[in-house]
Amino acid sequence: MAHHQIVIIGGGNAGISTAAQLLRKNRALDIAIVDPADKHYYQPAWTLVGGGAFDIQKTVRSEASVMPKGVTWIKEKATGFAPEQNQVNLESGPLTYDYLIVCPGIQLNWGAIKGLPETLGKNNVCSNYSFESAPYTFKCLRNFKGGTALFHNPSTPVKCGGAPHKIMYLAADYFRKHGMLDKADIQYWSGAAKLFAVPKYEKTLLQVVKRGNIKLNLMYNLTEIDGPNKRATFVGFGEDNKDEVREVSFDMIHVTPPQSAPDFVRNSTLVNSAGWVDVDKGTLQHVRHANIFSLGDAAGLPISKTGAAIRKQAPVVVQNLLDMMAGRQPSANYMGYTSCPLVTGYGKLVLAEFDYDNTPMETFPFDQSKERWTMYQLKREVLPRMYWGAILKGMA
Questions:
Q1: How many helices, marked H, and strands, marked E, lie in the chain?
Q2: Is 389 among the domain residues?
Q3: DSSP per position, 293-320
Q4: Which of 21, 46, 88, 318 shows a CA-CA span of 20 to 30 A to 232?
C-alpha cells in the first residue's frame, strides 16, 4: 500500500499553492498530490472571455507544468475516505497518509437543470463556467439583435459568487455600445435573497442594474430549459413566491450550474450537514480528525468561494499543519477574507473585499465601492500574471 507523509486531494489553485508553500518551508517534506487532470485552468478570466475581452487560450496550461518540483503527482481519481485508517481510496486502491489536505474544488451539476446538458453551447444557451462553453457566451452577445436576455444564479454556493451577474453587466455594456440596450429586456433570475451580500458594494451594483434597466427576480430556482423552443422554467421558494412557476421565453440565457462538493467528498464522513468538508472556520482543521485540513471551494466555510480566499487560506493551513507536525497547537487563524472583483462594464470594476461578517477588508487607500478603470486592469492584466507567476509557486 502506497504511503505519503502529506496527501493533498486536488491539484487546482488550493492544492498546488499549498504544496508549493509547504515545500518552501521544508524541502524534505514527502508530499503527494492526487488529481487526474491533464489541464490546469485560470478560471477567474472566463467572465472576460465571455465578454470577448480575454483570450481563452491564455487561461489554460498543462497540469504537469504547474506541479511543484519535489511533489509526487498521483494522476488518478480519489473515490472516498477512511479517516480512521488514515486512508484515501483511489481508483487503483488505497493510499495512506500521516496528514491529509482535502481541496478537490467544486462540482458543477449541469444535470440538475433539466434540459441544460443537451442545449448548452447552442440555442443561445451559454455559460462562462466551463472552458469549452465560455467562448460561446460572446458569440451569443455578438449575435443578439434585441429581445430577452436572461442571466441566472442558482441557490447553491458557487465559485465566484459575483460571476453570474458580472457577465450580465458586461452584456448590458456591450448592448449599450452597439446601440441595442433599448431593444434588450435584461432579466436576472437568482436563488439569492439579494443582489450582493455586502451593502457597501451592493449599493453600487444596484446603480449598475439601474443603468442597464435590468429587472431583478430573487429567490427563484431554474428547474428546466427547453433550448429549441427557448423557454426557461423558474420556481420560486421565497416567502412571497413559494412554489410559483414562471415560464420565461428568451433570446439568450447565461446559466450558472448548481454546485456542490464533489460526490466522493459529499458522500463521505468528512462533511457537515450541508455536504462540505467540516472544518473549523479559523484554523481550517477538521472538527473530528485533527490530522485533516481543508481549504478552497470544498471547505465548509461561510464565505464566498474564490481564488482570493484560497490565497489567504493556504498560509493558514501551511502554518497549522507544520505546528501539528512539531507537536504544537495550530497558531494561525483565517479571518474569512475573500475578494470578488466585480466587473461592471468594459474598463469598469468594483473590487469587493470582505470577511466572514461581510465587513469590508480593503487593500487600497481609496473607496473600493466605486467603479474604477485601474481595478479593471488589475483583474485583466495583473492578477492572471500573479496567478501563474507567483501564487502557484507559493510566493504570494
A1: 11, 21
A2: no
A3: EE-GGGB--SS-B-HHHHHHHHHHHHHH
A4: 46
